[in-house]
Amino acid sequence: MASTQKQKKAAPARAKVRPAGFPTRQQVMDFITESDTPAGKREIAKAFGLKGQEKIALKALLKDMADEGLLDIGPARAFHKMGGVPKVTVLRIVDVDDTTLIATPERWEAEGQPAPRIRVVERGKRGALTIGDRILARTEEAGKGWLAHPMKKLAKATEMLLGVVEEMADGKLWLRPVDKRIRKDTPISDIGTAKKGDLVLAEPTGRPPRISARVTDILGDPFAPRSFSLIAIHKHGIPHVFPEAVEEEAVTASKLVLHEDKREDLRHLPIVAIDPVDARDHDDAVWAAPDEDPANEGGYKAIVAIADVSYYVRPGSALDREARKRGNSVYFPDLVVPMLPHQLSSDMCSLRAGQDRAAMACHLVIDAQGKVTRFRFSRAIIRVAAVLAYENAQAAIDGEQDNELLEPALKPLWACWALLRKAREKRDPLALDLPERRVVLDEWGKIVSVAVRERLDAHMLIEDYMIAANVAAAKALEAKKAPVMYRVHETPGRDKLVALKEYLATFDIDFALGQVIRPSTFNQLIKKVGESEEKEQIMTQILRSQTQAYYAPQNMGHFGLALGSYAHFTSPIRRYADLLVHRALVGAYDLELPAPKDKAIPDRSSLSQEDYENMGRVGEMISGHERRAMEAERETIDRYVAAFLSAHVGEVVKARITGVQNFGFFATVEGLGGDGLVPVSTLGAEHFFFDEAGKALQGIESGDRYTVGQRLELRLAEADPINGALRFELPDNPSPRGGPLKRDRTRPKIHRGRPTNIRHIGSSRGKHKKR
Question: Are 750 and 728 spatial neighbours (Cβ–Cβ below 8 Å)?
Fold first, then answer.
């Protein structure tokens, strides 16, 4: 009983006692600061037992405190200390500092003060959050900064609209989207200072179905040189402006002494760089010569020299953080968004002819069967004898062009490559020789031509030397049990193989799922097809059955190249993964050079402890950046192709079907690329079956069949350079929407969903199977 009474007496002592009556400013401030939950007017009034007129007085007090700069009002009308952050609030992730995500409050109304950069503390699986995500988080002050502990990932806020301002005949303004996946234009409610034809960013306002756009930023003329690339940059959020601190550090780093006396001197060798004719930087060069060792009769020695980027871009530096944020360089037809500033990417780290350059050299010994029997790595100094375009190197080796480096450099390179090619053929990697488009522009940024890149022996030669060096880098690090950022390409999944089997069955080609799947399995399929007209479409379908390559510190092998260990080593100017591999080699093989005298540059160039601990997360990040770059590059080329074809609207072109859906099929102009839709509604009045397995549409009455890979002639009905979209129609059956692109809103729209003249037969081919 006595014990119970003691507990009753003790209980009030544990509760926080609030003074009776109306609170002072300091008491309100203390309560808001100490509260573990958002503190709004209701919570403050309840805490101090305020009622009636006291609540009205509290409202006036809080307004005064806000006006005096003591308080901010945050989401849900909750108050927090001026310059501070609510205990629980919505944050948007805006940046990555090394591997730590940085967020800012979604709403920040502290006038005259910048929004704080809050470090996000991730729990559980890292990599679940990325730039652009919104989170509900609990926040706390830590030292001079803030930490955020995510409670819940929220749906992304409405994205900004990117499009072109158009004026209709009735004078109304509309925003035409640049993304061809968006089929609706948006009425503009607030044009600002923009004018008809401007490329703009706009904020969606209102609620469905009455959504309108408010223009926030004017990006300029969508048809001006470089605008197609700028569209992709803005759409995908690609960082394209270097902070001043990064530019300054690049200038400082570019002046680092080379330490010639501590590097292996390879300046006496006729090393050459062989690159595309339009290459903006040169990060690799090669040399080969017969091996003089009698034990390796018929074998060769080779050197793959790569720009020593790790010497200039060191762990923890501003340059390093920016490079990691970008992940890779992005190459557009008209400009490059580099991973590193100009002072490094196209100057000190570019292997220019006749200039001394720092390099990481991979020394290879290759036997007469093409097997790499030994390798070593050194930090070297080189002087490239010449930078040659692929076409010029090939012309010299074919005897069509004189070149003074033919005997000392090119012939030995080709002879050594003949051995490497033997080993490649024995390995039998995946051989999908699909065309690559190249957009050629004149000096004013206008399109001269869109052509397929010619595949030369010179291309394959450089490719095989780079593969050999990449394999050597991975194995060298494994030998030292050092961390490796592998380039991983996994075996295709069963679901994709089942889809491929069903597709091949439409050509009466058997594909056994029970067999061990190797690259050679697909190569045999391609050989079976021979040079039939279905070859390219079958190769395309095999490509679609493959998994997407990625970066990771766990080795899963590289299926496509038929290699057990593979890491990217040969392009550290433009890929962050390669830079990490270089750093790992520096540490594993004790290749560190004296620390810079300039204390603004970090001492070490080898892999840091933070690099080591965060390899998995960084691998996920840069894999995502790579996919972003690929999509942006592809979309930009599509826009250039559409611009090139806009002068040919109404003409009949040779095309090939690239995809089939229940609403129509997609086709590409032979030799140019750029996908365009042929809506099923334009194929006539008859009904069509959609054969999902056979990737085909088939007419019920006529038996006409449209399938992936089929070649046919189509009339180009529309070509829209803004979003890269094309639309085709059958030459003998023009749709009512035919003609050049004029954005006439009186024309009928293509409706979403399954057309009325379609029946879906899924994976069952039945009587409609191609014979």
Answer: no
What is the DSSP-derived secondary structure letter of residue 595?
A: P
Residue 652 CB neighbour total at 10 angstroms:
13
Q: Are strands 161-167 and 199-205 parallel, antiparallel or unpaired?
A: antiparallel
How far is it, in rounded angstroms, from Cα 491 to Cα 676? Answer: 31
* pTM as predicted: 0.74
- Which residues share a beta bridge with 674? none
Which token pair is 328? 């890779």
pLDDT digits (tens, 9 = 90+) for 138-165: 888 887 788 888 888 876 655 678 889 9
pLDDT, one tens digit per residue, over 714-738 is 999 999 888 888 999 998 765 544 3
How big is the CA angle at 483 (ends 317 and 376), to the nearest 5 degrees?
Answer: 95
Residue with tokens 């200390």: 81
Alpha helices in 48-117 (DSSP H): 53-67
Instruction: Report DSSP letters for 677-703, one per residue.
Output: EEEGGGS-SS-EEEETTTTEEEETTT-
Q: Which two tokens stand for residue 263?
A: 């590097």
Tokens 């095309």 found at: 655
For the stretch 116-136, pLDDT in tens is 888 898 876 555 677 667 888
Q: Distance between CA atoms of 159 and 121, rounded to whole angstroms?
A: 25
Phi, psi of 302 (to 5 degrees): -145, 155
Contacts of 718 (CB under 8 A, 6+ apart): 649, 676, 725, 726, 727, 737, 740, 741
CA–CA separation, 131 and 650 (whole Å) = 43
How many Å apart are CA 290 and CA 296, to the nearest integer? Answer: 9
Count Cβ atoms below 10 Å from residue 449 Cβ, excluding itself: 11
